[in-house]
Model the fold of this input.
Amino acid sequence: MSTELPESAVPPTTDAGESSSAPTRRTFIATSTAVGGAVVAGGVIGGSFLAAPEEVAAAEAPPSSRVSLTVNGTRRTVTVDNRTSLLDLLREHLGLVGSKKGCNAGACGACTVLVDGRRVNSCLTLAVRLEGAEVTTIEGLADGDRLHPLQQAFIDEDAFQCGYCTPGQIVSGVGCIQEGHTGSPEEIREWMSGNICRCGCYVKIVRAVEQTAARK
Amino acid sequence: MHPFTYIRVSDTREALNAGRRGGRYIAGGTTLVDLMRETVERPEALVDISGLPLDEVTVTERGGLRIGALVTMSEAAAHRKVRTLFPVISEALELSASAQLRNMATIGGNIMQRTRCTYFRDVTADCNRREPGSGCAALEGVNRTHAILGTSDACVATHPSDVAVAFAALEAQVRLLGPDGERQVPFADFLLRPGSTPNREQALRKGELITAVEIPALPRPLKSGYLKVRDRQSYEFALTSAAVALHVRGGLIREARVAAGGVGTVPWKLPAVERHLVGERPSDSLWTAAAAKAAEGARPLQHNRFKVELLQRTVERQLRIVGGTK
Done:
């Protein structure tokens, strides 16, 4: 976390969907770490950003842009710092925290979402570039209370342990099935290699993808 | 990440104007955004070219192939013409990166991608490519994955692309558009060896835009393919790789195109191997003898001596896979 740079530090907008009065696990953690974060801020922000908080506030705001995109069927118009990744837009601005920040460098696949139907790493996607795009995240796969078949298959096959990589695995699996690269366990392994599972649940992940593809 | 302004352009003239003013083109962004986050790259202005009409694969009049700069890696790999005319390109692409990254990254961006040398990516390390004159931490550092060919005292980093190895083998041309109009640069001259200026990586003029990579026609039938050797089976950069294309007629090899990856500071064309093959009858002993010339001129470092033999074996294996066993 110490390498976090200011693009993800923008406070969530009001439509973040966390209006409930009871504190969620997420808001609790955010509140209780805020003090530590403030202490660290001066240290991690280097070069031209090295300034006291009041100077930052007085300085010109970093370049931002307005962008309209559709997320899980809902049209969203947001103004974001140009540095904001799609992943940070989803997690920090829209309250969609299913997509995970693992490596933040396109190496682990935990942040995988569909953009215009194709699976991509949302951590390497700048949000400002998504004008008019259709984004589908793990939260958008289920049909009401009915899980997406691949979500159900992950449960049936017990295809996870800690679950951190699971949203990325499932969205990537949906992409893999749509692309038609499910001809054999070997083919699934190759085409799912952009999703790392630290718990090593690969055998069951492959099985879940294979069975879902077969049912299509 | 440092702040930057962002504009999206809808035609090439608009792009060139922005490029001439110092704007940095962004297409797939998979390398650029990653390096911006590491503050290795600090562009002040991004020019989003993804809306430009450079996303087609076409067969040229002479039977070659023109791949638009904005065709994604996954689109190029899956394209019927690419798969039938030059399997080596499809194979190199599908052995690169991950499915997600291939959906984002483009052909133009792929050949522009910067080295994966860990010292280049670490802004606290000495790196002449990143900070000219600061030195090269890899020379005496952990250099197991570094280059053995085309190196200099200033830099020993490999070029990470796989498809660029196929382009080098096939003697592709890079089509460029700049303020002064269009021009075409042979692939061998497009990516620059480090020499004393490793910070200069491509033969691009200011504001120039890659519009396409063009593969010249080769006589048919042509067999081609790509072999990649790496530390894990998938989603990893090459330790060594080989792109091979052979035209065999009347029992003799008439044309040979061979290049290696993972070993050079640029994709490494192997003319000595090609010369050894042309005019000969395919055989196991021919593959072995030709591949023995693959590492000519190699200058291994402390931790990558294994690459000399691995390169020869990789080339030999791929010659046998493409040319068959007799």
Remarks:
- Chain B has 13 helices and twelve strands.
- The radius of gyration of chain B is 19 Å.
